[in-house]
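Forwarding these from the shared drive since the link keeps breaking.
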Amino acid sequence: MKKVLFTVLIFALFVSFTQAQDFAKRGVIEAGGSISFTSTTAVSDGETADDSQSAFSFMPEVGYFIIDGLELGLLPVFRSTSFGDDSQTDLGIYFAPQYHFDLKSSIYPFVGAMVGYNSTKIDDGTNDATFSGLSYGGLAGIKVQVGKAALVNIGVNYFMFTYNPEDWDGDRNGANVFGISAGFSIFFGR
């Protein structure tokens, strides 16, 4: 499977260098998204834990280039985490400006920021609790133009979620989440 993925990636890179550079221009609209999945099992002193933590994230995206390279976007986020009998669901909506570097090829490195609102529901099997608050993060990676109006991307992201209950007077409760994602999008306009 790894050889097939590697071959497809090399082919996509080769094809991308032969295509016109139409992406990241003023007036272009991008629509797509990315997904990520992680499964983590703790190991302590050589012993593997009985329970693992699995997380699935889905991040659809839509953006508009206000000038060449600068995209203003909207990024809804759905993240579901399970660990043993417990589960956690995060729903968020983020304003996500991104800057794409034009390398005069069909490869576009990008960096971006995210700021928005997050709601989290935690279910431990007997009790449910819902928390919400301001969240922010960042993302970076590369987008590769494949064909006339399609992109594949791979990147890293960071989210800072706040889980403070109402009337909380203490320090921040929440999570810092790092992830790796891959996705696909199309663009049109211009």
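-- next protein --
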Amino acid sequence: MGSVRKDFGKYISLSILGMLGSSGTILADTFFVSNRLGANGLAALNIAISIFGLINGLGMMLGAGGATRYTILRAQGQEEKANQAFTLSFFTAVVTGIAFLAAGLFIPHKIAGALGADASILPLCTVYLKTVLCFAPFFILNHLFMTFIRNDGNPKLSMGIMVAGSLANIILDYTFMYPLNMGIFGAALATGLSPVIGLATASLHLLTKRNHFHIVPVRMTPSRIAKTAEPGLSAFVNEFSSSIVLVVFNLLIIKTTGNIGVAAYGIVANLALVVLAVFTGISQGIQPLFSQAYGKGNQEEIAYLYRKGRLLASAIGIGVLCAAYTAAPALVSWFNSEQNPVLQTLAEQGLKIYFTGFLFVGFNYLTTALLSATERAGTAFALSFLRGCIGITVVACLLAALWGMTGIWVAFPVVELGTMAAGMLCLKPRNSTAIRKNSQQLL
């Protein structure tokens, strides 16, 4: 148990730092765009960035799913099948990325319109979407390698991948938008280049020959790909749900308060993405430890890890909510370059209400990570889907009709609280006689 305590701190702290680095790319875009292009630029960006939830979610699904299979199989001594899990994940990521690239080249304007961009911000949204979609293969592969490298025993480099990309993004954002005056295209280009730099960092794991995963011959069938990606379904839904929330909220807010409301939500949502990155870091950092313990059949370690993770998530949730109440005016003013009083008021109110949901988010992320790592991917997916797609859509529409903008802000904490209650039911003790399934069933 001593080694588990040590690994818990190392894996989670490095994973959190890495995910914070990832969220920094979008936050940097938000800061520079809001200060350079004002409320319209911020509204356009907030609509366009919803595509990241889908791209990053697929990258996390293929990474977390494949890496979970890889870790369990290696713990059981099945090296060849572990490498098959990597191979299936890698080639699926490449094909998926190319599909997004094609969409960016041929239909970015249609995607922008479908996401809710009106005539006044459609050109800005189209430019941003076209640029970042062309880099989709790099975003997906970046997530894939980050997860496999962490599960391959190198969490420091996994963190370094995200931090290197984010630091480069901040520098390039400033360079492209101020000295070079490239507008929103510059912001998108800086963001697109960040995973390229991340992958260059990831290559260190391969060049130093520390990697245990390799490409091996394997039949690429839909059923095998689905089985490999299955443990990552909850990670996909957790990430993709941020896009669902963005799109649903943007469409509701446009009807309620127009583009100024979308800009206010953009501030709240992008600050929320930073906090969500922390909880994602906890769940992704603990995932390989769950998988290792499960592969060895050690229920005591699983219980210990879950208990420690829950305490950490609770402490962070309380701290974040306190920060939202005490620092809301300062946080909002960073992104309100025009000093618009309506924008300031809307965003401050939203920050305080919306961030109440972070009291429950950590529990939900940990629960789905535990279920996925212990081969209950179906339950994890159902819980994540309830929370991130069905629940938030229904509740937001209902509360918006009842209370307008206030109802929209309240929807997030209400859904997270309901999901936590459902998660408690899912974690009730069950009779399990198959904690270590035959390795042939894993692929």
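Confidence is low (pLDDT under 50) at residues 431-443. Residues 2-428 form one domain.

- D.
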